[in-house]
Amino acid sequence: MKKTLSLVLVGLLLAGSLFAGGAAEATKAAPAKPAGPVEITFWHAMGGVNGEALASMVDEFNKQYDGKIKVKYEFQGSYDDEFAKIQASGGNYPCDIIQVYDIGTRYMIDSGWILPVQEYVAKDKYDISQIEPNIAAYYTVDNTLYSMPFNSSTPLLYYNKTAFEEAGITKVPTCFEDIYEIAEKLKIVNPDGSVKRYGYGMGNYGWFFEQWIGKMGLHYVNNNNGRGKDYATAVEFDKNGGGLQIVKVWDKILKEGISPYLNMGNDDAKAAFISGSVCMIPESTAALKSLLLNVGDKFEIGVAYFPSINRNDKGGVSVGGGSLWMMKTGKQEREDATWEFLKFMVSPEMQAFWNAKTGYFPVTVAAAQTATFKENIAKYPQFQVAIDQLHSSAPQYSGALLSVFSEARQIVQNYIARLANKEVDAQGALNGMAKDINKSIETYNLVNY
């Protein structure tokens, strides 16, 4: 049984006291019909070009629903910033809709603060097959769709196609065996021994670790990857061999100078790729548009499937990005308005627009039939590789669900950093990851289940 009060306390400890703790229970009485438009608040974490595209979509909704529904959209900073704020709110419902990153899914389900969109899917007889099945699978537990997929992405391999051609390389890497070989051909060393250009580079990003586990067809945590009848109680990657294989790849590329250490996250890796000092990087599909714009005519960008650890791995990629959650405010008119807004945001034309402006997948199948989508694919054919990779995966590789996923990802990154600094070896890094993540899982489960 969920212990909602305990979950609130955990949120407060994790995020800090950003809101006054607690609130009176939302009234269940039917509200009087509002005189003006129903106003709802939308919290999001999209900045820059993505934020501009999102604002255009919300403005279009407000225009079409003028006098009926008005959406106020409020930028909350990064995903982590926004997630900390909703944790600290203690169920005080500071918004009607919140965009939450993929790794916050289990926490949101456990919180008791949300209204599963499945309820409105059933009530409205909404055809859920409109949503890409490999995307919907991530946010579905026990046949219940908990949130509406929105800004979905998977990792890809980006490569400097011009440098490949100049080096006479025609093979596109599909696994690290290929990457080692090709990276050596692309590497340029100065007379003084310093490296002018690396063939490969990647940021210390925990999301890649999770994706490689899935590419091997393995589970990150137990109990059906956190999707079973029971919640996850421990990691699996230390027992199934997947984690050690991934850490050993990290160890090899750093020790042998195949890649420089490009710090936590992936910003430095993207900058290195744009400058031409690194020829291949893994990165999100959502980065494609910005990379194309920033590289310009300096070189041609090639795009390939996210490489596997081993040549014969038989798994698939899972979606990253985020989804839109309905908060259980107890205000019928606001919840109804929220559902109308969600349907609008995943309508084919809006998803085609979103894809064209940002690089995120169109989560709606019919978006591929729109003129907007077709024009964008014709202009940027690299987007098709991302779509093809999504369709080549399967729902069983939808990825893990874990309440402490944000902490787990940081723990993985901390140990990769220690590996880079030669403080631990590959086995020591793996053992540390498993021990620290299991401790976080145990603490969370003890308090909340």
From TrEMBL:
Name under which the protein is recorded: sn-glycerol-3-phosphate-binding periplasmic protein UgpB
Record keywords: Signal, Transport
Keyword Signal: yes
SUPFAM superfamilies from the UniProt entry: Periplasmic binding protein-like II
Species for this entry: bioreactor metagenome
Keyword RNA-binding: no
Location(s) in or outside the cell: Cell envelope
InterPro entries membership: Bact_solute-bd_prot1, SBP
Any single GO CC term annotated in Swiss-Prot or TrEMBL for this entry: cell envelope
Cited PANTHER family: ARABINOSE-BINDING PROTEIN-RELATED (PTHR43649), SN-GLYCEROL-3-PHOSPHATE-BINDING PERIPLASMIC PROTEIN UGPB (PTHR43649:SF31)
Coiled coil stretches, renumbered: none
Gene that encodes the chain: ugpB_8
